[in-house]
Amino acid sequence: MAAAEAAVVSSSSLETDPAPETAETVAVAAAARTGCEARVVKAALATKLLSLSGVFAVHKPKGPTSAELLNRLKEKLLAEAGMPSPEWTKRKKQTLKIGHGGTLDSAARGVLVVGIGRGTKMLTSMLSGSKRYIAIGELGKATDTLDSTGKVTEEKPYDKITQEDIEGILQKFTGTIMQVPPLYSALKKDGQRLSTLMKRGEVVEAKPARPVTVYSISLQNFQPPFFTLDVECGGGFYIRSLVSDIGKELSSCANVLELTRTKQGPFTLEEHALPEDKWTIDDSLEHCSSLLPAELTLKKSKPEESNEQILSCEYMTLNETKGEDDVNKTF
Fold it and tell me: What is the CA radius of gyration of the chain?
């Protein structure tokens, strides 16, 4: 009888006593909690990303095209939010629009204004204002692209050109002037960019001269053959054409060696352009809401059921002159 009771007690103990915790089970539980917390954080970031609606500026370095830089920005924002990810598939689709206004050449650096959400619709109207550039020109050499990336097509002497000569002709390039756009440009013929046609070796005729506006222009430095200009201009203006025309006016030739956009609309390079290490959802959200003039600030759009959305991206590239090109979209 005693043996039977002992067996019952032993059996009861086996049924009720919890299994002892091991380092492995603790680690598994901690990992599960961490994974759950990470998903919550990612969901919150995704909600923020989908709520972004406004305009902000980023700092474009030399090298990438404006479109390539926009891709890089998009990828960083997506990666931070963990989107798209497997758990988001087969759920309601939410499109995030992102685009830039006012293309910068790959060899140029400076302010690139980005629109996100409903902010993409603001780009054309906002960027019709003035732009400011610091350009370093090189006298004595002309290139097919009108900058240092092209092939040299002509060389002329420049040794007799003085600082006074340059300052004396700048007035001719102030106000409303007629300007012929470069052949290597984003302007289109039959739906294709002139620069693309030129690279294929096709014969391309120059676009006719058109009126553009220069609000101010000044010579900042002159160390032959190099000269530095500070230019404030309106939309559709090409600094490369300006430098080339200045060279011709001086009975020589010239091309752009360095180009920096220091201002576009209300955004300046020093105050507003986000460097790449600041391309985060929180920084973008802050700058969407705080850097716009009060009359241009957009209300945040509320995403629908953010936990039931998957992000796709629509790229929009708006040109410097309204109506100059159609809006380009890639999905």
Answer: 29
Q: Which of 117, 55, 83, 123 is nearest to 314 (CA)?
A: 117
Q: What is the per-residue pLDDT across 191-232, written as a single tens digit (0 to 9) for each?
A: 555 555 555 555 566 667 899 999 999 999 999 999 999 999
Domains, the chain: 52-127+274-290+306-319 (no CATH), 131-264 (3.30.2350.10)
Please give the C-alpha separations between residue 4 and each of 1, 7, 11, 13, 94, in angstroms, as whole numbers. 5, 5, 11, 14, 68
Cα torsion for 176, 180, 186, 189, to the nearest 10°?
120
- Pick the closest to residue 65 from 105, 37, 11 (CA basis): 105
Q: What pLDDT does 68 receive?
A: 93
Active site residues: 105
> What is the amino acid identity at position 314?
E
Report residue 22: phi and psi, to 5°: -115, 165
Residues 87-122 pLDDT 10s:
444 444 556 688 998 889 899 999 999 998 888 888
Place of tokens 């690279």: 199
Is the CB of residue 98 less than 8 Å from the CB of residue 319?
no
Per-residue exposure over 199-218, b if at least 16 CB sit within 10 Å of its own CB, e if not:
eeeeebeebeeeebbbeebe
How would you class 177 by CB atoms within 10 Å of its CB: exposed for 0-12, middle for 13-18, buried for 19 or more?
middle
| Whole-number percent of the chain with pLDDT over 70 | 63
H/E stretch holding 153: strand 152-155
The pTM of this model reads: 0.74
Sorting pLDDT into bands at 50, 70 and 90, what band is 289?
low
